[in-house]
Amino acid sequence: MEKSVYKIIEVVGFSEISWEDAAKAAVTAVDKSVRDMRVAEVIMMDMRLEDNRIVGYRTKLKVSFKLE
Questions:
Q1: DSSP state of 17
Q2: What percent of the chain has pLDDT over 70?
C-alpha cells in the first residue's frame, strides 16, 4: 500500500443564506488553489450580527488535501 501525507488548513466561509452555504463557499474557494482535497470537517459555526439581527453565517472548516 502506498504511503501518503496530507496537509490540513483552516478556512472560514461566509454566506448571507446559511451555514451550509458558507461551508460550500469555503470548499469552492479552496478548490481553486489546491488539488486532491479529501476531507472537510466543520469545527465551528457562528453568525454575524448587526443591530441585533442576523446578517450572515460563518462556517470554519479544517480541509485536508494530499501532498504530492
A1: S
A2: 99
